[in-house]
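Listing S7. Sequence submitted for prediction.
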Amino acid sequence: MKVNAPQSIEGRQVWDLALRCGGQIRALPGRVIGYDMTAVLAVGDALGIPRIAVAELMPRIEQAAVAAINEAADQEIESAGHGAAEGHIPG
């Protein structure tokens, strides 16, 4: 079992919700800033997930997801920049 694996039914439900709502994000050019929580709560309601579980767990998932997405984007930009500096066109 993974250390960060959901430990409850509600935890598994909210994790599934986070995966389902991957497209429901708020973004600025070049940056993800978070989930659209209005949309997330609506999907959670439709799936019958307790709002208290969504309100308690989603901010933690959101924080980790946003950090990971932005870090990956930064690395992609950095590696593309190195390729351009070496005369390679990223493709």
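Caption to Listing S7: primary sequence and predicted structure tokens for the chain studied. Strands lie at 25-28, 31-35. The two ends are 39 Å apart (CA to CA).
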